[in-house]
Amino acid sequence: MERVLLHIVPAIAIGFIMQLIIHETGHLVGGLLTGWRFSYLQLYNLVLKKESKRLKRMVINDIGFKCIMYPISINNKALLYTIGGCIANLITGIIGLVILITAPLSPVMWLYIWCFLSFGIGLFFMNGTASIKRICNDKACYNLLRLDKHNILCHNAQLVIAKYLIRGLTYSDIGEELICLCPDMALNDIYAYQAVLEYYYYLDTNNYLKAGQALNKIQNNNISMEVLNIIKLERIYYQLLLIFMNFDSIQNSASDNNASISSIEESIIKYSKKGDIHSFRVKAVYEAFNLLSAGHSNKAIKYLNTSIYNMKKYKCIYDGEKRFCIKLLRRIINTIISYQNKND
């Protein structure tokens, strides 16, 4: 009995990790069977990504579990790729149950197989029951893809965009034909994230009016916490950006600005994601705003330059996102310098 107790924690850990790997492998197999191409596999902060027809291993700042692929055609069916992880968990869970019932096992082996099948069935129900509370899980995404063709179009476009971002292209390089697909109202996770990409595109092309309009498409609260946090963080960034554009208001009415965004630091902490380069960008701009409000424009420039230096060293999958974020910080530096020159 003592020997069995010693194996409880390892059995739980191994069973959970194996089923996570099986889940992501299920997405991979489902995608390959329906003509999709591999982009990358992420397990915690370990990444295996395709780069120039070769596989590259890397450790990144961001944390997650995902298998990202892209379609050969923008109209490729995505159902088996989306639900493949659930199917893999269910099948391996059933296999584990059959072994548990039929095979003569030692108590230790019984424990390991029981943990393995329990996590398999558990992950199947967790991802196979539609939910958007924390994230838009596999079944919720599956339901949206079955709902209408435009959901499929946006979903597939997002994964093609991901392929280009991995290669180092920014949103302006990719172009509006693939990005600006969101309808006037973003009523689900797929449309909401498409609106976020549209917002990034207009930021990248210096069209701040349309960037704001893209964010305003997202009015529905029936969206997952993951996407809502991105939206709330970007609304903070957009608010700060408008203040920078009206530079006189920063120093002439610092107290008014501080009053209007009194809870901004708390919100940034709440909505930021660890290891996310966009969260890092928003934090950097907020700190620069604080320095400018105190009349320290040179310190603000220095802080932003330091942030750019740190961004360049950032270990992330999407090099295009890194280039995009650095470009936005450089624009703010140029805005501050232009204001300094005007007032010299």
Summarize the structure.
The chain is 69% helix and 10% strand.
How would you sum up this structure, described in words?
The chain is mainly alpha-helical and 344 residues long. It folds into 2 domains: 2-129, no CATH class; 224-344, no CATH class. Helices cover 69% and strands 10% of the residues. It has helices spanning 2-6, 8-33, 79-102, 107-128, 138-147, 149-166, 171-174, 176-179, 189-204, 208-216, 225-245, 248-252, 254-260, 264-271, 277-293, 297-312, 319-342; strands at residues 36-51, 54-71. The protein has a two-stranded antiparallel ribbon. The model has no long low-confidence stretch (mean pLDDT 90).
Main sheet: which strands, in order across?
1-2
Strand content: 5-15%
Mean pLDDT: 90
By DSSP, the count of extended strands is 2
Characteristics:
344 residues, 2 strands, 2 domains, mainly alpha
Could you give the topology of this structure?
Blueprint: H1 2-6, H2 8-33, E1 36-51, E2 54-71, H3 79-102, H4 107-128, H5 138-147, H6 149-166, H7 171-174, H8 176-179, H9 189-204, H10 208-216, H11 225-245, H12 248-252, H13 254-260, H14 264-271, H15 277-293, H16 297-312, H17 319-342
